[in-house]
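Tokens as discussed.
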């Protein structure tokens, strides 16, 4: 038998049997490699499992301490930050003509808020929503990192159930941030899970979206009902304006449950809220069937592959509103989406810092494990 012919020690490395050089060792190694290939084939992407690869760069850009100033009165330029050069174009193009806000102003805003924004984006795949002709122009979604691109743009290559592998860009530093905004991205839409395991998110959230006939005051009332429900479960929650029409409420969770499991728990909470507050809240997803004057507590945004506008994102609205973190006291007193926009959020950050810093911390995250069925 073949096993009797072989002599020598056997060693294991990553689950493969590696055999010291003997007459038939290469044959056995080939058999083991074939088994590994078969195992990988069995582990192809499905609903709760999506292999992903993070292609990092050898040296990360250094943290920028000084203000990055985008040159004025030029149409295009090369700007070097942390040793990396970004080519910026169409800087004088009006992205909000009525407000006289240019593409340069948009890029400068993101450069100024990078210190608080980047920690919320790092290590996550980014879906690009590009507005080449400004906020009122047509837009298109783009998932694959465009080529050519700077060699220091990191990638998150995610296997999908269809068999496709999509190379999403990752925004790790100021140069990468300037690069993606220069592509015409107004708001930023990162994944909920980090690239090392794209199936296990870091937070659960609710998108509170007013149905026609509902005022923003109704949205605020709904947000307080959501907080009350989450408090009763012991979940710390953090609100932000969407920058559009509603409120986002996020809960930092212990990483572990799959995106589908997180979605299931969010669904149960949302349905309980709707049944307890039928005159205020709905969870009906079909637009035509939603009752007027209610607020949709949208749990479906927790589904795998979905994204929401990130914290500090400028939105393509007439007033260049920003998706801004707010306190629950501000929600109680009453805020408006228009209170936070490209021209005033920087001063708010200087005064309050990052109100969403708790979402980045490892401690005080809610463990969903006991609630899994």
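Sequence:
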């Amino acid at each position: 038998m073949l096993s009797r012919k072989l002599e020598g020690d056997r060693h294991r490395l990553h689950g493969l049997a590696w055999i010291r050089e003997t007459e038939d060792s290469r044959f056995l190694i080939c058999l083991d490699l074939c088994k590994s290939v078969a195992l990988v084939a069995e582990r192809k992407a499905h609903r709760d499992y999506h292999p992903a690869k993070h292609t990092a760069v050898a040296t990360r850009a250094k943290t920028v301490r000084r203000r990055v100033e985008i040159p004025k009165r030029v149409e295009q330029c090369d700007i070097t930050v942390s040793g990396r050069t970004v080519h910026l174009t169409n800087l004088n193009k009006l992205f909000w003509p009525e407000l006289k806000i240019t593409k340069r102003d948009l890029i400068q805003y993101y450069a100024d808020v990078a210190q608080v924004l980047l920690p919320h984006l790092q290590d996550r795949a980014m879906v690009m929503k590009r507005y080449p002709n400004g906020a009122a122009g047509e837009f298109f979604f783009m998932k694959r990192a465009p080529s050519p691109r700077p060699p220091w743009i990191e990638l998150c290559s995610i296997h999908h159930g269809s068999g496709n592998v999509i190379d999403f860009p990752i925004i790790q530093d100021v140069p990468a941030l300037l690069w993606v905004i220069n592509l015409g991205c107004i708001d930023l839409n990162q994944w909920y899970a980090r690239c090392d395991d794209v199936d296990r998110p870091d937070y659960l959230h609710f998108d509170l979206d007013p149905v026609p006939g509902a005022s923003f005051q109704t949205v605020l009332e709904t947000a307080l009902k959501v907080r009350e429900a989450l408090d009763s479960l012991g979940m710390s929650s953090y609100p932000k304006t969407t920058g559009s029409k509603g409120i986002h409420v996020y809960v930092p969770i212990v990483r572990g449950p799959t995106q589908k499991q997180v979605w299931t728990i969010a669904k149960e909470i949302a349905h309980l809220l709707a049944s307890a507050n039928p005159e205020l809240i709905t969870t009906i997803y079909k637009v035509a069937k939603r009752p007027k004057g209610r607020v949709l507590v949208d749990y479906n945004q927790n589904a795998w592959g979905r994204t929401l506008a990130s914290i500090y994102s400028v939105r393509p609205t007439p007033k260049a509103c920003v998706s801004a973190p707010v306190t629950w006291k501000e929600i109680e007193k009453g805020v408006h989406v228009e209170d936070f926009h490209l021209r005033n959020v920087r001063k708010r950050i200087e005064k309050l810092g990052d109100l969403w810093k708790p979402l980045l911390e490892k401690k005080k995250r809610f463990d969903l494990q006991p609630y899994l069925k």
